[in-house]
Amino acid sequence: MKISTEEIEKIAHLARLELSNEQKEEMRSSVEKVLVWMEALNEVDTDGIEPLVHITEALNNFRPDEAKPTLDRTKALNLGPDTNDQYFKVPQVIE
Amino acid sequence: MSNFDSTIFEPVIGLEIHAQLQTNSKIFASDPVLFGQDPNTLISPITLGHPGTLPKLNINAVNFAIKMGLAIGSEITSKQYFDRKNYFYPDLPKGYQITQDKTPICMGGAVKVRLKAGPKEIPFHHIHLEEDAGKSIHEGDNPYSFIDFNRAGTALIEMVTEPALHSAEEAFALVTEVRKLVRYLGICDGNMEEGSLRADVNVSLRKVGETKLGTKVEIKNMNSIRNIQRAIEYECFRQSEALLNGEQLVQETRTFDAHTGKTHSMRVKETMNDYRYFPEPDLAPLEITEKWIAEIKSKMPLLPWEQEAEFINTYHLPEYDAHFLAESKEMADYFKEIASKTKAVKAISNWLMGPVKSYLNDNHLEISQFPLSADRLAEIIDLVESGTLSHNLASHQLFPLCLSNPTENAIQIVEKQGWLANKPDEDSLHTIIEDTLNNFPDKVKEYHKGKKGLLAMFMGDVMKKTKGTADPKRLNQLMAEALENRK
């Protein structure tokens, strides 16, 4: 086994996903297939090759430091799941 | 804490100092960066993390971070990229923070601090760029928290020291110095109450002589330099008590309560976090060329220690004065502006360290809020230096009058008060001196027997009679002569 059910549970927790036992097994075997498939890459000799971070050649893509008009608050709040006239509301966060 | 024994344990302290960069717009979006605006008015689809939006890097955030790196002697990383730090929190709309994990923009560097025992260089590990989160507002037992995303996406630099500090004093001195530096560089306003500058502190203890590090505790949410010092002092005390009692310390995050002066454990579970960093695919990598660095170098402002050296070498001021004047860029600039108008540099320094500083302290003001222009203060100083007014009259009467009427010329105020008209000429000054000495024949005898301190008393009497208008230098000479004649 390339990946255990415990590892799937950990990843699901980090992604805040709730999975049933069947879903866990389904997920496990599907992730396992991906890992087996990716293993083919290990056959390539990558000694002395710099890791590739980005696949495009784009470099230094900057924006000038200019402040521009913002999104209308009412419009923005309308897209939130729960709001009042000023804020986005979330279940209380206790620190 | 008085009962921490530094002969048994040595504290090992590392700081993570976050500075909000004073750019016009956010690091990856064009929303303005402003404090104290109505909630959720400085937002955009990018800031809110809506699907399909793309971040684009603000070039000034990069410039500002390089400036800081150059100021502390860091190596600027030539090839960099951003990483995603994944976690869920309501004030982080995308579910990840864009930061630099593998390739921080600046590596190494050091900041020199002054300690009671002498100067010390505090080494830095790195400086990286990242975005700030929004703010969660909690209202008592209200079942909701309210989220304001105005701050989300503000450019931050996180400056991470080596675990090379060994006392609360060092931490206090370092944050003070960093705050001064970011203000000189003009990259952050350093306002800790508003959260523009914040620090997380890692503290652990080890037995003196040991090299292995003890279990560390991270203290978050400190909004003043004084509180950073207090939190470290408390932590040293708490950890040493625990260790002496044979207790096991846990690696955890704690908060500092400014009211009680104590730290409290928070969210132990979250130290289990796995941030799953990976390179941010939505942002192009950076390449910082030597030419770019040279360009920023050529535009660097005078740094605090360079400013201090200039005061000593060019203005020939004592070290004490130089240190005081270089304490803030605004004070240094104000001094230099006055010095361009009057030549008496030591007198300027005395005025700033004396009456001006007292006025600022009494009114809880910064030098930038001081009402008098450089011209006005130069006029006052010139009136004293030319012997037109006594220092006493200038500092106790003219100075407050100028402050209550900052637009009026100091010379006009002097004329209105009639001080120059009342000023005694040479003959009347003689008469007043003789009069004073006649009134105190016994004191004059004592003076001649060696009680030279009485001179001040005679002078004071004349000053009172002339309502402070006599030229103190001339009075001093005439008084000495008059006393000599009575021997």
TrEMBL record, chain A:
Broad EC category: ligase
Gene3D superfamilies per UniProt: Glu-tRNAGln amidotransferase C subunit, N-terminal domain
GO molecular function: asparaginyl-tRNA synthase (glutamine-hydrolyzing) activity; ATP binding; glutaminyl-tRNA synthase (glutamine-hydrolyzing) activity; transferase activity
Domain of life: Bacteria
GO-annotated biological processes: glutaminyl-tRNAGln biosynthesis via transamidation; regulation of translational fidelity; translation
Record carries keyword 4Fe-4S: no
Pfam families noted in UniProt: GatC
Chemical reaction(s) catalysed: L-glutamyl-tRNA(Gln) + L-glutamine + ATP + H2O = L-glutaminyl-tRNA(Gln) + L-glutamate + ADP + phosphate + H(+); L-aspartyl-tRNA(Asn) + L-glutamine + ATP + H2O = L-asparaginyl-tRNA(Asn) + L-glutamate + ADP + phosphate + 2 H(+)
Enzyme Commission designation: 6.3.5.-
Keywords (A to Z) from UniProt: ATP-binding, Ligase, Nucleotide-binding, Protein biosynthesis, Transferase
Description of how the protein assembles with itself and partners: Heterotrimer of A, B and C subunits.
Annotated family: Belongs to the GatC family.
Task of the protein: Allows the formation of correctly charged Asn-tRNA(Asn) or Gln-tRNA(Gln) through the transamidation of misacylated Asp-tRNA(Asn) or Glu-tRNA(Gln) in organisms which lack either or both of asparaginyl-tRNA or glutaminyl-tRNA synthetases. The reaction takes place in the presence of glutamine and ATP through an activated phospho-Asp-tRNA(Asn) or phospho-Glu-tRNA(Gln).
Protein name: Aspartyl/glutamyl-tRNA(Asn/Gln) amidotransferase subunit C
Species of origin: Sandaracinomonas limnophila
TrEMBL record, chain B:
Single GO MF descriptor: glutaminyl-tRNA synthase (glutamine-hydrolyzing) activity
Keyword Transferase part of the UniProt annotation: yes
Pfam family, one: GatB_N
Domain Asn/Gln amidotransferase stretches: 333-483
Keyword line: ATP-binding, Ligase, Nucleotide-binding, Protein biosynthesis, Transferase
Coiled coil feature spans: none
Protein name per Swiss-Prot or TrEMBL: Aspartyl/glutamyl-tRNA(Asn/Gln) amidotransferase subunit B
EC number: 6.3.5.-
NCBIfam families in the record: gatB, PRK05477.1-2, PRK05477.1-4
A GO BP entry: translation
